[in-house]
Amino acid sequence: MNYMFARLNVYDLLRRIFIEEPSVPLLQYLKTIDMDYLVPHEELNVSSGIEYLANSLNYLKGITISTTSQAYQDLHWDYTQLFIGPHELPASPWESSYKHDRLLFTQTTMDVAKFYSENGFYLPESEHEAADHIGFELDFMYHLARNVDFDTSLLSFKNIHNVKNQVNFLENHLLSFLDELMRKIQNSAQTDFYINMSRFTKEFINHDYKEIKKILLSTNNKK
């Protein structure tokens, strides 16, 4: 249960990093963040990933962040050129870009949206972005992680069902394109912030999948 709680902060961070262009309040918050609070080493043993995250946050500590600063403009442009355009995207943020259809709002997008709705997660009606955007998928993982019932045992039906859904979503969706997307970010990002954040994201989510799968197997064995 300690691990399940510790990972909440990480998914909260990752969804904010990838869901939209960086904002001044978010970057200013990241400049002051306590690494031990965000990623408690005794609970989240991803040693190389921790180093990447520290490098990413240290990059922010060395720059001035305001809407007029060059460093902020560089980060904003880096996100834009990676995930929005106007040119061909070097790191398409949609799962469907890495599947057989390679088109948005087709079967892959619908499958992800269905998984969301079955677990009580809905995008705003005003949202026109495809449901299989990496930012939304990370937001969904945060939603599932937050809905673990920390007042009961992991052996409770609700928690076993929740963890099973997290494993299934990682296997069938997020992990199916994560490594390739993060590799493209590393190859195309122009700032150390996004290069190191992509490295950390890959390390953490692959580690997290192994950990919660072990938890699921353990709970199944104890039933």
Give a quick summary of the entry:
The protein is built from nine helices and no strands. It is mainly alpha-helical. InterPro entries: DMSO/NO3_reduct_chaperone, TorD-like_sf, TorD/DmsD_chaperones.
Give the total of beta strands. Answer: 0
Helical stretch tally: 9
Strand percentage lies at under 5%
Class from secondary-structure proportions? mainly alpha
* Helix-strand topology string: HHHHHHHHH
The average pLDDT score comes to 90
Low-confidence parts: none
C-alpha Rg (nearest Å): 18 Å
Q: What characteristic shape results from the CA principal axes?
A: globular
User: What top-tier CATH class fits best?
Assistant: Mainly Alpha
Tally of separate domains: 1
- Per CATH, what is the topology? TorD-like
CATH architecture: Orthogonal Bundle
Helix content: 55-70%
Query: How far is the N terminus from the C terminus?
Result: 17 Å
CATH superfamily label: TorD-like
Major β-sheet profile: none
Protein name: Molecular chaperone TorD family protein
Pfam family, one: Nitrate_red_del
Keywords: Chaperone
InterPro entries: DMSO/NO3_reduct_chaperone, TorD-like_sf, TorD/DmsD_chaperones
Describe it.
This is Molecular chaperone TorD family protein. Pfam families: Nitrate_red_del. Keywords: Chaperone. This protein is mainly alpha-helical. It has one domain: TorD-like (Orthogonal Bundle).
